[in-house]
Amino acid sequence: MKTLDQIEKELMQTVAGVHEPPAGAYNFRVNGESIGRQSSDNINVEPQENGLIITVKANTQDEVVHIPVVISKTGHKETVINDFYIGDNADITIVAGCGIYNCGPKNSIHDGIHTFHIGKNAKVRYIEKHYGAGPGAGKILNPVSKFYLEKGAYAEAELEQIRGVDSTDRITEAELADDAKILIREKMLTQGKQYAKSHIETILNGKNTVADIVSRSVATDESRQEFTLHIEGNNLCRGHSECDAILQDHGTVLATPSLDAKHVDAQLIHEAAIGKIASEQLNKLMTLGLTSQQAESQIINGFLK
Amino acid sequence: MLQVKNLSFSVGPARKRSTILNNLSLNIKPGEFVVITGPNGSGKSTLAKLIMGLEKATDGQIIFNKQNITDKDITERARLGIAFAFQQPPHFKGVTVKDLLQISATGHETFLEDNETDYKKLIETVGLDESYLEREVNNTLSGGELKRIEIASAIARQAQLTVFDEPEAGIDIWSFEKLVQIFKKFRDKAPERALIVISHQQRLIKQADRIIVLRDGQIALQGHPDDVLPQLQEANL
Fold first, then answer.
1. Which segment, A198-202, B29-33, B181-185, is predicted with the most confidence on average?
2. Is the pLDDT reported for residue B75 higher than 90?
3. Is B235 on the interface with A (CB under 8 A)?
C-alpha cells in the first residue's frame, strides 16, 4: 500500500480512527485513487466505476469494513459512488468518512453517494465523519446516503461533521419495510463563514416501522445551517425527529420540520430547539469552578458528544 | 467565615427603583448551619445569589475568609470555597450526571477520587441508584430527580460554605425526608463546614443552629430555633 504522509495519516485517523490497514475488509482512497483494498471471507470489496460495490454475506456477524476517503491535493474534485448489499441476518459496522486538507487556491470537493440495501433482519451501524483542515480554499463535502431496509432490518447512522468543512449539502434518505427500524444521529459544527445544509427524509412504508432522528448542531461565528427533517408515515409506525441547535456569535440556523402522516396509525413527533447557551447553564457550571469559557466548551462538547 | 456588610440590592429604573435587600448585615461562623427563611419576596434567594456572585450588590460588601469577594465573579468564589445548589437547576443535553459530578469534584482539595464507587456513593446519598450516573441531565429527568442531582453536585464540591436555595422546592415527600438526613450527615461528616439553607420547611428549620428571618429585605428576627420558631409562628412570618 502507498505510504501515507503525515497529513494524510492525521486525516485518516480523524475520520476513520485508523491510518494503517485494519484487520478485515477495507478500502483506503486518497486523492481519487484506491491505495489499498482488501476483502474478508464474508465481506467482498470490489471496484466499480467511481467507487465500490461492497457485498456482505448473509449471517455475517460482528465484522467491520473501513472505507475512508482522504483528499490532500488542492483542487481535487471527485464523485464517489459506493453500493452496499448487506445479506440477511448480518450484523456489521461500516466506517466511512472523508477528510480534506487544502493548502492551495482551488476548492477541493468530495461528493459521495452511498446506497445501502439492508437485508431481512440485518443490522448495520454506519459511521461517517467529515473533517476539513488547511489554510487553502474551500473544503467541500456533499454526501448522499440512501438506506433501503427490508423486513426486520435495523440501521444506525452516525453522521458527524467535526469541523473545518466550508460547505456541505447533505442528503440522507431511508425507506423502511415491515418491522424495520432506523436511528439517525447527526452532529454538526460550523465556524467562520461556513455553510451547511442537511435534508433527512424517512419513508415508513412498512407496518411497525420506527424512525428516530436526532440532529444536534452548533453554528458559530457567521456560519449558516439549514435543516429539513421529513418523516412520512404510510402504515402503523412511529417516527420521531429532533433538531437542536446552539447559536454562538452571529451563527444562524433554519430548521424546517415536516411530518406527513398518511395512515391513521402513524404516530409522528417533531421537536426543535434553537438558541444560544442559556445563562443558567453557564452559571451552574461556573458555580462548580469552571470559567465561562470552560463552561461554554463543556456545554458544546457534551451537546455534540 | 462569611461577613455580609451593609448589603443592598435594588432593581428597576431610577424612578421606579425597587429595593430587594436594604442595608443587610450578617456573619456566618465556620461549622454553622443557618437557615434563612421569611415570606415570599423578602429577599432570601437574592441574598443567596449575592453570596455566590450570581447577582451583583448595589451597595455593601461580602467578605469570605477575610477576603473581600464583592467584586469577584462566580468562578472565583467557587474556587475560594463557596458552593451553591440552585432552586431551579438547568438541563444539559449531552452532559451526563457523572460528567456533572466529575466537574463538581475536580480540582478541589477534597474532591472525590475519580472512580465509580465514589460517584455511586454520592448519587446514592441523594436516593438515586447508580444507573443515573450515565443518564443525561436533560428533560427525561423529573423535577425531583433533577433537584436531587443538583444537591449531589453541590455536595461533591465539599466546599467550606455551601448555599442551598430552597432545596425542598419541587421534590416529593420521600425526597424531602432524605433531604433532612442529608443535611444531618453533611454536618456530621464535616463539622467545620458551614451551611446556609434558604427554606420555608419547619423540619429543615429545626435542624439549624440559627434561624435568620428576613422581611422586606432586612433581618426581622434571628436566633436559635427554640427561640425564633415560636415568635415566627406568632408573627405569622
1. A198-202
2. yes
3. no
Q: Residue B159 half-sphere exposure, CB side, CA atoms within 13 Å? A: 30
In this complex, is the C-beta atom of B84 within 8 Å of any C-beta atom belonging to chain A?
Answer: yes
Residues on chain B touching A278 (C-beta within 8 angstroms): 90
SS3 state at A113: strand
CA separation for the pair A298, B102 (Å, rounded)? 12
Structural domains in chain B, CATH included, are 2-235 (3.40.50.300)
Q: What share of chain B is helix, strand, coil (3-state, %, to 5)?
A: 40, 30, 35
Residue reference for cell 412498512: A206
Put simply, the answer to whether B78 touches A286 (Cβ < 8 Å) is yes
Tell whether B52 lies on the interface with A, counting CB pairs under 8 A.
yes
**Substitution target from A288, A291, A304 for chain B, most B beta carbons within 10 A:** A288
Largest CA distance in chain B: 57
CB atoms within 10 A of CB B188: 8
B140 touching A (Cβ < 8 Å): no
User: Is the minimum CB–CB distance between B92 and chain A shorter than 8 Å?
Assistant: yes
**Dist CA A50 CA A79 (whole Å):** 7
Distance CA B102, CA B200 (A): 31
Distance in angstroms (rounded) separating the CA atoms of residues A238 and A240: 7
**pTM listed for this prediction:** 0.85
Supply the mean pLDDT for chain A: 96
Q: Which residues of chain A have pLDDT under 70?
A: 1
Q: Give dist(CA A145, CA A211) in Å, integer.
A: 15
What is the identity of the amino acid at A9?
Answer: K
Q: Does A39 touch chain B (CB under 8 A)?
A: no
Q: How many contacts does A have with B, using Cβ atoms within 8 A?
A: 62
